[in-house]
Amino acid sequence: MHKRVTVVGIGYVGLPLAVALSHHVEVWGLDIDQRRVDELKAGHDRTGEIEPDRLAAAPLNLTAQPAECPPSDIYIVTVPTPIDGDNRPDLTILLAATRTVAGMIDPARRPIIIYESTVYPGVTEEICGNEIVTITGLVRGRDFVLAYSPERINPGDREHTIDKIIKVVSAESPEVLDEVAALYGAITTGGVYRASSIKAAEAAKVIENAQRDINIAFMNEIAQILERMDLSVWDVLAAARTKWNFLPFQPGLVGGHCIGVDPYYLQHRAQELGYEPRVVIAGRAVNDGMAHWVADKLHSQRSEKAGRVLVLGLTFKENVPDLRNSKVADLVSRLAAHGHIVTVHDPLADPGEAFHEWGLTIDPDAFDARYDSVVLAVPHRAYLDGAEDLFASLLAPGGTFVDLKNAVEDRSMPRQADTWSM
Ligand SMILES: NC(=O)c1ccc[n+]([C@@H]2O[C@H](COP(=O)([O-])OP(=O)(O)OC[C@H]3O[C@@H](n4cnc5c(N)ncnc54)[C@H](O)[C@@H]3O)[C@@H](O)[C@H]2O)c1
Question: Which of 14, 114, 162, 279 could potentially form a cystine with 78 if both were Cys, beta carbons 3.0 to 4.6 Å apart?
Fold first, then answer.
């Protein structure tokens, strides 16, 4: 087992990994964000993934200064890989982190550089590997080696955690693969899967997410079709699901920085190779249009009369504070464009971040008023506990209650309200 690991980027992915590894090897967590480092040192993980006692129990070394990290045997890069305004992969952050790692390599240790960030096939070797060679003059395979292990954890998911899921590993040679498999094998009971190559592992990750995006898009399209037939998508799904091979996806808003982003990574590489993907990208437009569809439906349900609307939940999914690419923001702006006065509430989102990211104010006193419409956009646990009284107290007589994800049990639905979901 190697002695020292540096995790570069200690966010949603990097922190749980660094914590898990720290019980087996010496771990350094390096993050460019000094505030994040200070918060973690003080025992607070703002992503909500690691509880204070687990954080305190992890023998982690945290820093925002690369110079403070001693030379490591393994570097694991877990930084964001977003898209730009034209939906093209933006590798700026990944390359900046790569340059930081390049500056820390001690060739005498022949470190393994493992990428965990989601990328399209070829990025680890042909872009990041080449970048390291170009700026250091080191020889790949002799002075450092490359590996790739996609991250599968799901923020807020307490079941499929890093210590239980199967970890896909890949590396540039069988010997390196053994070392990478041993490292990850130490932290998960789910075992490791050795992909045939780095590119195969990179591709596996993007197609996992593209598949999910397409399947949700199909459900979103079905929801829109069934609505015109005056049928509830949930009733139809409940019936269809009794078939053994029906896939149990659900309609919903697709946000976050994985499912809605990764299909574009696949598209980019396909286009570079002269193939224009149709299926991969068809779902994007449907999913991106859902927030407007919901807003338009509510508006017509209210006879196109502007009113006071309370939107519950702003994060991209339930029980996480992550606001990135939240489609609820689209819903709010569309409702506002229809003339509604929209109040936003979220118990988990950071108000400063909500304002910075979306220009939206989270109203802590939102529960002191009554509204013509209440949209349960993100069914955080906090809303569902005691739902019956809460929703009833928020709706004005004759109001409309929208349970977007069909999360509220019938008995908790506000009585005498006009209610619908998706
Ligand atoms: N969040 C998820 O659920 C999830 C799941 C699977 C895969 N992924 C992938 O994992 C990668 C990381 O995602 P995340 O959600 O953890 O992102 P994040 O934003 O939560 O964390 C990334 C961290 O990297 C830091 N960082 C940025 N540039 C840096 C640099 N040059 N040096 C050091 N630190 C730097 C940031 O300050 C941040 O704390 C992405 O490629 C993402 O697609 C994410």
Answer: 14
